[in-house]
Amino acid sequence: MAEAKTPGHGPLTGVRVVELAGIGPGPFAAMLLADLGADVVRVDRPGGVGLAINTEYDITNRNKRSVIVDLKSPDGPARVLDLAARADILIEGYRPGVAERLGVGPEACHARNPALVYGRMTGWGQEGPLAHRAGHDIAYIALTGTLGMIGDPDSPPAVPANLLGDYAGGSLYLVVGVLAALHHARATGTGQVVDAAIVDGTSHLAAMIHGMLAAGGWQDRRGANLLDGGCPYYGTYETADGKHMAVGALEPQFYDEFVRLLGIPEHSDARKDWARWGELRAAVAARFKSRTRDEWTAVFEGSDACVAPVLSLSEAPRHPHLAARGTFTDHGGITQPAPAPRFSATPTAVRTGPAQPGADTTDVARDWDVPDLLKDQELMKGSE
């Protein structure tokens, strides 16, 4: 096993990862591996990547180190292959065939390191009619049916930021895939390619819904089902101050508590009566509109009614429960989510701020024993 010489914290301490810089799900997946203790070296390109925010605030690059390699230069591919030869995992997010044309595809990397896990992150996947087409999260999830599930039935589907496709259906499946392949590689000495496609992962996330659809327990339209806002006791409601409360009182005992505290006990028997759901929804909405979000939060505090205030991104870190757990942390002046999940024996932490392009070349050249990285750095400085 390749051993990282840099201090690490977490269950992946000692694992080396090469990340070929990109945007979206690849960097987030690499951040998760870095949060778990892996020594992640991000190979940035001269001039950066598209859609990049100020690098000082890009926390998806926290806990990583960065070198700059020009893959289009004569020696660029050789430097990446030098890193791949010393790595456990490599992650890239190019369109199919691009890594091969650049000279850093799976065949070239496995020639240097047969045990390498080569993770490929794309929207459409490595094959299929759309494999070479451009796209973003919203287009990928549109084809899977999951985007069409979300939102009010009388409005266009709601856009769930890039959380559902890029990160849930993409990054998390890539991480599961490369860690499973790493387990196999350590047992057999044989690496492999992991093809993580957002269309595959996002479809897989809807497994339970597809089962319910097949059983006749889910209607193939928005706002008509138990978990998509169609149920009046599983949804969101506006309060008197224009804010919102979230309700998830599905089980009978939780529903009974909900209608009691909301002050509509006359609707206690409407839970299973679909014919009364319109009436129930109107009653719930009217009650919530009668008080502010904070007032309703106080009403439901300490109960099992499964009701919570809908907080903004800036409000969330100050919630007493999240604050008590340390769900968010401050590092380098940036409030950000702390690493997750948590481990009893190998705790994780935000160790460093966002890696700045090329800032770690000297350390990586030493720790990974790739001295030619320093030569490339000098050449790039000389060409500026």
Global outline: elongated
Unreliable stretches covering 5 or more consecutive residues: 1-7
Could you tell me the number of beta strands? 11
Task: Please state the CA-atom Rg, rounded to the nearest Å.
Answer: 25 Å
Mean pLDDT level: 94
Bin the strand percentage: 5-15%
* SSE-based structural type: alpha/beta
Q: Residue share in helices?
A: 25-40%
Q: Helix and strand string, N-terminal first?
A: EHEEHEHHEHHEHHEEHHHEHEEHH
- Terminus-to-terminus distance: 38 Å
Q: Provide a count of the helices.
A: 14
The main β sheet shows up as: 6 strands, parallel
Major sheet strand order: 3-2-1-4-5-6
Organism: Streptomyces coacervatus
Protein name: CaiB/BaiF CoA-transferase family protein
Region (Disordered): 333-367
Pfam families: CoA_transf_3
List keywords for this structure.
single chain; 384 residues; alpha/beta; 6-stranded parallel sheet; 3-stranded antiparallel sheet; 11 strands; disordered N terminus
What is the compact description of this entry?
This is CaiB/BaiF CoA-transferase family protein. It holds the Pfam family CoA_transf_3. The chain has 384 residues and is an alpha/beta fold.
Set out the fold topology.
Blueprint: E1 16-20, H1 25-35, E2 39-44, E3 64-68, H2 76-85, E4 89-92, H3 98-102, H4 106-112, E5 117-122, H5 137-144, H6 163-188, E6 192-197, H7 198-205, H8 207-214, E7 234-238, E8 244-248, H9 252-262, H10 277-288, H11 293-300, E9 307-309, H12 320-325, E10 328-331, E11 334-337, H13 361-367, H14 372-383
Parallel strand pairs: 1-2, 1-4, 2-3, 4-5, 5-6
Antiparallel strand pairs: 7-8, 8-9, 10-11
